[in-house]
Amino acid sequence: MDAVVFDLDGVLVDSETVWDEVRRAFAGAHGGAWTPAATRAMQGMSTPEWASYLVEAVGVRLTPEEVAAGVVAEMERRYAQGPPVLPGAVRVVRAVADRWPVAIASSSPPALIRSFLTATGLVDVVPVALSSEEAGAGKPAPDVYLLAASRLGAAPGRCAAVEDSTNGLRSALAAGMVVYAVPNPHFPPDPAVLAGVTVLGELAELPDALASFLPGE
């Protein structure tokens, strides 16, 4: 193993429900009609992608640019009092970073990634922190994971990825990484996708799982 790449939402911060709440409220306030598929469909999408989805699939009566600005502004407002960091997340990132270079590959906009790193004191611990906005396509496309590996100077097949959602897991698998899942309890991943990865009961198990990894097993 040469490097480890973390997802952010649902792995390090308990934000998937916050994103869902904010998008639902914004859509309702601007003429949209929420659909049963909307929540899972947008998990992993980049900001331009989910903003367009809210316009085209949910019926929000604004431009995608206006949707993105409004939703992200509300998320930034909520993060201003501190991002909802999951218990033990900072300790795990530091423990992993003591042994391997680490990165964050997230679908969150750059401002929220910076907010997390600043609030947790991880700015100097995580040398590469990427939003899928910078990679060209959101998850389940592999772009953000491939870019993270490139920035770390590591081959994707020698990187571990840590994810929680179906689209995130598919993204990391498509990048050719060794994938560890910490399933999101609010939005459980597709069992068929979980069958192709190593499933952890909690994030705290990750350092030991990585230490015992043997290629080819």
Automatic annotation (TrEMBL):
Q: What is this protein called?
A: HAD family hydrolase
Q: Name one GO molecular function term.
A: hydrolase activity
Source species of the chain:
Saccharothrix lopnurensis
What InterPro entries does its record include? HAD-like_sf, HAD-SF_hydro_IA, HAD_sf, PGP-like_dom2
Keyword Hydrolase present in the record's keywords: the answer is yes
Q: Which Pfam families match?
A: Hydrolase
Q: Which NCBIfam families match?
A: HAD-SF-IA-v3
Q: What keywords would UniProt list here? A: Hydrolase
Keyword Membrane in record: no
Q: Which domain of life is it from?
A: Bacteria
